[in-house]
Every structure is written in C-alpha cells, then in structure tokens.
Amino acid sequence: MTERYIAFDVETPNCANDRMSAIGITVIERGVIVDGFYSLVNPEARFDYFNVQLTGITPEMAVTAPTFSELWEEIEPLMSSGILIAHNAPFDMGVLAKCLCAYGIDWQSSASYACTCVMGRACYPGLPNHKLNTMCDYLELNLNHHNAGSDSRACGELLLDYMRRGLNISRYVRRYDLSQRRTVGRF
Prior knowledge:
Helix content is 37%, strand content 24%. By secondary structure, the chain is α/β, with parallel strands linked by helices. The protein has one domain: 2-Layer Sandwich (Nucleotidyltransferase, domain 5), CATH 3.30.420.10.
C-alpha cells in the first residue's frame, strides 16, 4: 500500500453541501508532512448565514477566488497522488463528489479514502467524542477550526499520531463511489 496520504478538508457555503467555499490539502509522505495547499473557492452559489458564521468566509471573500473547475486543474494531481484522508470523511468525500458532478468533471469512478475520526475512536476510545477540535485539544495540536487549511493540517497530524501509535492504516481504507456518492467497500 502507498505511503502517500492526501489529507483534505472542505468548507461549504450553505446547507446543500454541494459546493466548496474553501479547500485545504496536506500531503503526507513516508510519515512526514511534505506539502500543503489552501484556497478559497468561488462556489457560484448562495451563502447561508450559519456557514458564514461557522467558517468566516463571506460571499465577498469568495467572489474573486477560482471556481472549483478552475481550481481542479491545479489540485487534481495532488488529489490523485495518494489515499485521501479526512476527518468525518464521508462528508468531505460527498462534497467532492457533488462538485465533480456539478461541474461535469470526469475524474475517476471511485477513490480510496480513510477517516481520521473513525481511526481516532480506535486509538483513543476513552475520549468523550472524536470531533476534530476534541482530538486536537487532547493531543495539543494547533487548530484554527473550520479553516480548511488548518483542518487539513490537523487531520494530517492526527494520521501521523495514529501511525506512531502503530495503527494499521490499511485496515481503515475504504472505496468511495464518486458517482453514487457512497462508500462501496474496503480498498
């Protein structure tokens, strides 16, 4: 199995969760963070008050940002270069799949992914919950929560912590069907 993992996090502009307003990507290779990427995304969609309050991203901030289709040309090589990792991964995988569909981007039929929230339950079963901020507080990791760049970095650092603890990451890798927008099985 690959030793390259692509931790990513998305923020959304509204409750439909079918567009991105930001994306963060952190690349882990051979047990080390080797690259990072962050961008606002023009979702070409309305913003809900709740999402603006949660993420701090306003329509005015995103209007000059690249659209998902423009950004995809830049991030596709990263997203294709390893196993995708996210905290509460079905959410992020779903948003990614919906964006690919909405923009008519034919990437691949499925993608391998693993969820740091699920892995966190295995490594730290005694915590009251396994939300990203709870995990980061417990492990004393820096986090500017709901900033996609910071969240993806924290997700990558959680993965590295699990690896140092001896967790077999391959046991948690699943396949996500991008057209059906659902997990279809193990890697």
